[in-house]
Specification:
Strand content: 25-35%
CATH superfamily: B-lactam Antibiotic, Isopenicillin N Synthase, Chain
Oligomer: single chain
CATH architecture: Sandwich
Number of strands: 10
Largest sheet: 4 strands, antiparallel
Protein name: Fe2OG dioxygenase domain-containing protein
Distance between the termini: 46 Å
Strand order of the largest sheet: 1-8-3-6
Bound molecules: 2-oxoglutaric acid, fe (ii) ion
CATH topology: Jelly Rolls
InterPro entries: IPNS-like_FE2OG_OXY (IPR044861), IPNS-like_sf (IPR027443), Oxoglu/Fe-dep_dioxygenase_dom (IPR005123), Plant_2OG-oxidoreductases (IPR050295)
Pfam family, one: 2OG-FeII_Oxy
GO molecular function, one term: metal ion binding
Keywords: Iron, Metal-binding, Vitamin C
Length: 190
């Protein structure tokens, strides 16, 4: 087995700590979300966006939500990341030393929609190149994910169908983000 570097272990600890805080904020035991995700599978993507002569015509990355549990992202001083809220795109201004936390699809499912996965995109600009490093913290492909039993009740029934994470991921790669949330296909009811 390949030994993980100290830096990637640190990222895992931050992600676990955040899932603990999310759990507690919902009145759940601190390990609730972490236990539901199981062992973290970590992927790191380094994205370089060169200056674009026609930013109005080109996105760096189309709108999507990340399919795992939690994404931690660092960006350089050039802005470009935007998040969607109430049909409006907001720029995530780069701050020195800051880590951007993006709630991803599996966390939305486990919390039964109490935490919503963040729809985001990357816009280009004509003057400066941009660099970002995203660390994805995801369940294993064999893991089945569903709303946590402690959250679901008769008055607050499951809003999402159970899904195998490997299948969910394959679907994402086959269909692509299509600018919308793939997770919506798991919604139960009208
Ligand atoms: O480069 C960014 O700021 C966003 C990257 C991203 O959303 C992704 O890799 O999923
Ligand atoms: Fe993303």
């Amino acid at each position: 087995m390949k030994k993980k570097g100290k830096r990637s272990v640190d990222w895992v600890l931050v992600a676990q700590k955040l899932l603990g805080i999310f759990s507690e904020s919902l009145g759940l035991p601190p390990s609730c979300l972490k236990d539901a995700v199981g062992e973290f599978y970590q992927n790191i993507t380094v994205s370089y966006y060169p200056p674009c002569p026609q930013p109005d015509l080109t996105l760096g990355l189309q709108a999507h939500s990340d399919f795992g549990a939690l994404t931690l992202l660092i960006q350089d001083q050039v802005s470009g990341l935007e998040v969607l809220k109430d049909s409006h795109w907001y720029t995530v201004d780069p701050l020195p030393e800051a880590i951007v936390v993006l709630v991803s699809d599996q966390t939305e499912i486990i919390t039964n929609g109490n935490y919503r996965s963040a729809v985001h995109r990357e816009v280009t600009n004509s003057t400066g190149a941009r660099l970002s490093v995203a660390t994805f913290h995801d369940p294993s492909k064999t893991r089945n994910i569903s709303p946590a039993a402690v959250i679901v009740s008769q008055s607050s029934p499951s809003r999402y169908r159970e899904v195998n994470y490997g299948d969910y991921m394959s679907r994402w790669y086959t269909k692509g983000p299509e600018g919308k949330r793939n997770i919506d296909s798991l919604l139960i009811g009208p």
